[in-house]
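Researcher: Let's try something more involved. This one mixes different molecule types, so please make sure each is placed in the same coordinate frame as the others.
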Amino acid sequence: MGDTPKSHPRYLSLKTRDAIVAGVEKGITSLHGLVAHGRGEALDYLLGERTHPFARRAARAAAATLLLAERPVLSVNGNAAALVAADMVRLGKAVDAPLEVNIFHTSKSRERAMRRHLLEHGADQVLMPTRKAELDYLDHNRRFVHPDGIFKADVIFVPLEDGDRCEALRKMGRDVVVVDLNPLSRTARTATVAIVDNVVRALPLLVQEAHELAKATPRRLRQLVARYDNAKVLADAEARLRRGTR
Amino acid sequence: MGDTPKSHPRYLSLKTRDAIVAGVEKGITSLHGLVAHGRGEALDYLLGERTHPFARRAARAAAATLLLAERPVLSVNGNAAALVAADMVRLGKAVDAPLEVNIFHTSKSRERAMRRHLLEHGADQVLMPTRKAELDYLDHNRRFVHPDGIFKADVIFVPLEDGDRCEALRKMGRDVVVVDLNPLSRTARTATVAIVDNVVRALPLLVQEAHELAKATPRRLRQLVARYDNAKVLADAEARLRRGTR
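Model: All components are placed in one shared frame. Result:
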């Protein structure tokens, strides 16, 4: 992987790509996850590879939603584990939520490697999918979750796209906070709060917002949530994507 | 990989993704190639996943350029081999051009697996990179090519992005025909002809155009090439990408 020359105009994007490729080599990211990462790269490129005001508004509402939750859970997939493990752990501590491993293409060995990776990055507890608790509306093996985690959660943070699961959770009455670079996706459109940004920028921002709002009153947090308009955020993000920055 | 349900709204796109993942499992596609495929998926999605008039114009000019060439060569990378091996072979026969294996992240075993794969798909001859011939302007191991292939070619068909190589070949005075879903890329902007389309649709179209133009006079082919405006094609493609279709 080390053969990307520094003279390459897309050096930083290529280094992040190296990190996700390393995730595959460690057994935590799936091959399909690499393709999904590529989709994100293209969209991020069109957005100018920076955090826009619509993403800041969403990150603030997301932090408020997670802080107000009674049983928040942070779902982790193979891409999030490869790219932002330490920030996921920090966010879990900031909003008092456990991490739960939940991947698209089921693999016990990958689930175990992810758990190990998250523990190495400072996680106190990592919940695993079980056969004891199932979500409705999902027609394949992504339905299995932990009985004390996503199964009982009122707010689930899903840091990368999974349209089916987001839709299923919403139908079951849960609030879902997502990070998704595609403002047109089902994930973004069905989510309670969609942060349209690269996960490597969105996670540190979300941790910062959670720290800043840690001492806010519940009334103030409810106000932030009530004023948040996800449809407007997605419309702004789509306009930016279409208008372009280069 | 067989766990994508038919009910999934992006079933066809997911099946193509399965083909590229199979390419990795066969040892012909690189992990970085999977990420590149994902970038293409996102751009194709924004373009409505269909072949637009600007791509048809480019495919016609591309076929004319290849038919007029004295020494055309078709460069094949790991993604093209996984997705369109049979069509690359057909195109080679239609325009009387050899295939040459030329990959971004060097790997002898991958080069050999690609060669085998192309021969299995009907190729008569597959040129391999050697240490005997080098391109100018490339600062790493992508400079090595075959002395009777790309090294001497006047027209090189590069079916998937590689901005550095495209630029180097153009600086060396060669004509380069590319397929690239990103109309803003250096590849597309430095190419002689850029077909902005998914390679799985562009290759069959290009083969068809080559067959249709096979009996055209050189004068007619030169006319087609002279009238082609790559900058206009890219402007139309960008407008379509920005405007969107969904």
